[in-house]
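User: These chains co-purify. Model them together.
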Amino acid sequence: MTTSHAIEIAGLTKSYGDQVVLRGVDLAVPRGTVLALLGSNGAGKTTVVRILSTLLRADGGSATVDGFDVAAEAARVRESISLTGQFAAVDEILTGRENLVLVAQLRRLEHPQRIADELLERFALSDAAGRRTATYSGGMRRRLDIAMSLIGDPPVLFLDEPTTGLDPQSRNEVWQTVRELAGHGTTVLLTTQYLEEAEQLADRIAILHEGRIIAEGTLAELRQLFPPTVVEYVEKQPTLEEVFLAIVGHDDAGHTAARNAEHAVTQGEPR
Amino acid sequence: MTTTRLEHAGHVGHAGHVAGDTTVLLKRSLRHILRSPDTIITTAITPIAMLLLFVYVFGSAIRVGGDSYVDYLLPGILLITVASGIAYTAFRLFTDVSSGIFERFQSMPIARSAVLWGHVITSLVANLVSLALVVLVALAMGFRSGAGVLAWLAVLGILVLFTLALTWLAVIPGLTATSVDGVSGFSYPLIFLPFISSAFVPTEGMPGPVRWFAEHQPVTSIVDTIRNLFAGQPLGTGVWVALAWCVGLLVLAYALAMRTYRRKLG
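Assistant: Joint model of the two components:
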């Protein structure tokens, strides 16, 4: 069991005072898959991520990450994970390169400079490497943030609303990164309130509502449960984005827009 | 891959991790200070302004016995320097917490206490630089001391203890504050405390209850001890009171800060 699932959660509960946030969450994420945890604001998505990343103790239930119990073996869990929180957690006074070197040093890796250079290259941040991150755009900060999370190749990655507040171009860049990670076998637990994001990235989708997982499965499985909702969103959202990206131009984005437009058309066809 | 990492972690003991991680994080926050040296300068400016104001404006009206007033005033000004300096420590910690980088560190396989120690040692370094600036200005204003190397080292030791005590106190608002105002607000009473002590004027002239408070609060014993060390006077029992205050405050502040930290970690 523990070997096939990177994350296993059973009966997880958490309250803040009188306010019950998690009422018994059960969830299993197979290794090497991307799971999107969907839910509206305040559904408890961040609470789940904070418990899994050992930042918060659960009131009840159990959770293991990479086979280690988050409460009893927190230090082991931290060896296996990386967290990208809701707000890009970069050091604003340091440069992009210094941020990466800092994380590499804290993970006690050899050749932190080389690791930093490789990631700067991979995330198209080489030109901005020597600039303080306070001068970065939202998208660049998020890319740096995710790059910092990849240092040390943690087998499990938590992305808490990675695209909230990003413009469409930056969002597409983040999506591309997550797809690459999934291709390399990293297990990703992603929280989002955007249905399209889940659809684009996730192998499996879990819906957290009122403190419980009310539905979990592949997109195809979920479609059978709630056909009208899914179809409606898929038809509407990409259309506006397509218009926006087409107007704004931008080489990369145009390419993605074209791909998305194509995608939207196929998805939009009557079934 | 997981096994390699765990073996790697197993090679170095816990103490080694704390020291190594603290060094990395110390370098980080020292770099912050180097990039905004204004924090050290503004820390030193208020005490220097007070020094100028009290020596050149009020000083002629203040009787402190045989000493020159700048000699009399410097020890208290040094404590005010530390009290205003630690506000930046709280601010830097608050910035880490509110920017999310604190949580990033907490979710990484590093020694958890290293995050605080990095800030604490940075605070010590920054405050010592500010203190040196203030002493240089005082020397330019005519401050003279016949103190030998040992006495100077004793002054340094007391100031280090005092800085550490106030720094650990500053960790608490740094971790818990919800706004920038809340962070800096806590240091105002600390800056004000030396005014009701022997720092500016001798306590003898104060009315009963004020005098009682002034003579029994930590600043007076610490100020008197530093003043005696500078003047080459015998220390008497006051030095033990001063040390007891410093160490007692340090232990209490450390315990409260660590409790706050553990609560913060859930």
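The longest strand of chain A covers residues 5-16.
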